[in-house]
Amino acid sequence: MPYEQSWQMISDARRILMTTHVRPDGDGLGSLAALLEAMTALGKDVRVVLPSAPGPMYLFLHGLDRFEVLDRDVTPDRLPVDWDLLLIVDTCTWAQLGPLEPLVHNYAGRIVVIDHHQTRDDLEHVGLVDAGAAACSPMVLRLLEAGGAAITPTMAESLFVSLASDTGWYRFPNVTPEVFRLAAHLQELGADPDGVYERLYQSASPGRMRLLGEALSTLTISPEGDVACFWVSGEMFRTAGAEQWDTENLINETQTIAGIVVSILLVEQEGGAIRVSLRSKRDVDVASVAASFGGGGHARAAGCTLTGPLPEARRAVLDAVGDAMGRTVSPAD
User: Fold this and answer.
1) Which residue range(s) make up the domain with 298?
2) Which of 80, 121, 184, 279 has its CA 20 to 30 A from that of 210?
3) How far is CA 239 from CA 55, 219, 242, 266, 277, in A?
């Protein structure tokens, strides 16, 4: 069975390298934090290297001070390559591994992936993959329990962050009775929901709030009232005094508008690339839209990256969303 096989691979490994996707979120970071604590308790030599920096709202996670960021804390040429096992959390696609992709290629057959996205590649891995799972935390918890690892209060809180993040604080369509049972179990093990909520959703920077105002000034809505599209330019970041991580969950603001089914957020990156986030309340599979541009994700939450300029990327995404909806989508300018 995959859990027993995965745990055996972990047990047999002395040196373990762990990572997640670019622009790491609460699911990947929370799962890694719990795994790092468990692996360290087992006496493993463990290192967590992220392909890009996490947002400051996650700094409260136990053990996050041990996480390294590629090209900030360690350069690729300084990163050892003699690991016994590579453990990847919350992605199973080459595109989401960013600058770590070349290193991952070296570990074919010595990779364990824990993921719940419907978009995935063959990383020549052992996979704990469940596209029906709300987050990675249910699989991480099952893996740790299968190995007899003790779940500490800090591990429980990390896994609670994972679960809460990918369910939008238990309000997304992926929430099931099992999700609430798991949340209750993690609280019983020591997670503090009130404290987690404050840190995740009530700790925004002033720059983020200014950036939200800038972004909403670009908002357009289709004549049918069901598609919202807005964007953030490099100039807006400078004007607002905001950072790239300040856009996390920004797309959810337009999902609060009555009648909106699909939300689109385009964010200009340094170098001219355009990062696109897609959300759908129902009916429209935005993972298929993202996949048409080389991205992926879930049916209700997905993303991709396009080349600029921003107006052309916006038009291309709107056309793809229109194809998915069976009509032309033309938000008024």
Assistant:
1) 207-325
2) 279
3) 19, 18, 8, 17, 22
